[in-house]
Design goal:
13 strands; four-stranded mixed sheet; 2 domains; 7 helices; elongated; single chain; seven-stranded mixed sheet; alpha/beta; Rossmann fold
């Protein structure tokens, strides 16, 4: 919990605020799969340039409102993926879910099946001359890896990447790909459990440069002022464990200690 704002540390807002407090200031924030907006991105870094990418045209009026109120922002109605072109977008009637596939397969009789432009993050940042360092957030219903594969150039100028991953699908592929790009897992926030059996379904994973500013120190306690705090925590933890044992695992009557006479041998003590 952030003591000043009351923001829970295990949320995206808490993670972003922590990064900012550590001195992180991206020049460009890229929100891939913006939907109706990722407000903690915009509000944590209001001075950055913001690019919102969203494939569902019905969300455009709301993104336009958001961009008008930000210092420097624009949106694109398109799908970010690993190669540019024209893709087919399939939208659920409630506008909550969508999926894309390569090629032109739209049916004019089906308003939920349409052709949309596809772009890569590398291409759009180059065309618009968006400056690094970048912060990238990706949430695109399972196609996050495709987005990242189209961003290998700008990842070189990126310190902080937020990716929605599913534990039943692409999580390990994303971890492997990010490792190949010089990134390591740094944070896990906003855990989502499925309703059927309460299994952990998806999380937002934060990746940072393995040799970047967030990994300069790999020790748990990083300074002299931290060691007394750690020692105090460990002491209290031990005392709580002892108290729990005394309360829940002690015998009603303490057994008498059994004393057995020790016999001293030449090389050892026999009990």
């Amino acid at each position: 919990m952030n003591q000043q704002t009351g923001t829970p540390r295990n949320t995206m807002s808490g993670s972003l605020l922590m990064a900012k407090n550590l001195g992180y200031e991206p020049k460009t924030v890229i929100d891939v799969g913006a939907a109706l907006g990722t407000f903690n991105l915009y509000e944590t870094f209001p001075d950055a340039r913001h690019l919102l990418i969203e494939p569902i045209a019905e969300n455009e009026p709301y993104l336009a409102k958001i961009c008008r109120h930000l210092k420097s922002a624009e949106y694109i109605i398109a799908a970010a993926t690993k190669q540019s072109g024209v893709f087919t977008l399939n939208i659920s009637p409630d506008m909550v879910h969508s999926s894309i596939s390569e090629g032109v397969n739209a049916d004019n009789r089906n308003p939920y099946l349409r052709n949309i432009p596809a772009i890569t993050l590398d291409e759009i940042c180059r065309k618009k001359k968006l400056p690094g360092p970048y912060l990238i957030k990706v949430d695109v219903d399972g196609l996050e890896l495709d987005v990242l594969m189209g961003a290998t150039q700008i990842l070189q100028q990126t310190e902080y990447v937020i990716v929605e991953v599913c534990l039943f699908a692409q999580m390990y592929d994303i971890v492997h790909f990010m490792k190949s790009q010089g990134f390591v897992a740094y944070d896990i926030v906003d855990l989502g459990y499925r309703q059927s059996d309460a299994a952990l379904w998806q999380v937002d994973m934060v990746f940072v440069k393995e040799s970047g500013q967030f990994r300069k120190d790999t020790h748990y306690a990083t300074g002299q002022q931290d060691i007394p705090v750690l020692d105090s925590y460990l002491k209290a933890y031990r005392e709580n464990l002892i108290a729990h044992i005394d309360t829940h695992y002690s015998d009603p009557v303490e057994p008498k200690a059994q004393v057995i006479q020790a016999v001293l041998g030449e090389d050892y003590v026999i009990i």
